[in-house]
User: Fold this.
Amino acid sequence: MIQNLPIYISISFIITSIVTLLLFYWVIKNSNSENVRKKSRIILLGLTIWLLIQGILSLKNVYSFNINSMPPKIILFGIAPTILTLLLLFLSKKGRIFIDSLEVAKLTLINTVRIPVEIILYLLFINSVIPKLMTFEGRNFDLLAGISAPIIYYGLRKSKLNSKVILIWNFVSLGLLLNIVINALFSAPSPFQKFAFDQPNIAILHFPFSFLPTFIVPVVLFGHLISIRKLIKIDLNNN
Assistant:
């Protein structure tokens, strides 16, 4: 863990990670496929084990040790496996059945976790463990997606928004997510670092903040990709 960092910041991020896990479980548990619903607890167990693995790796300083290794260990053991998993889900028949069984409205609500994440990022900046550019005072506008998510969810539930509006929101929110991911990557101490050398992004290499790139971001990304896929299919069918 990061020395001299107020404990409430770490506890708040652990809670945010658990809320993300439970929201994603809620989405799966309410799938329109009975087969997927039956597997929801197994999926929850798998994701919990993944979080435990990431927690152990970061507590053992695997990610923060030898930051000049290539590729960076957090990419090798944390980010790459999640990207590979998402690719397999979209490319396999069973994966697409799982994806298409999830509801866009509920996936949208997961984005509310971006609100506490942004608040915590700001607290991390104040404590000099991430650069200002990763906050809403810098280049990070991700808070807008979190604040607007409940509005989009309400519009979906009440059928007050058409699919094109929701699709545009997903593309914009995805862009905001990719923006902060790129800035976080290039400000972290590694061979890829391009800026923020005076106050680099060291937080994501430590527990529990390693959950951000290895769990929270992939879940939010997955939700956007599923929603975009389903909304495009709706538009094509309507035309």
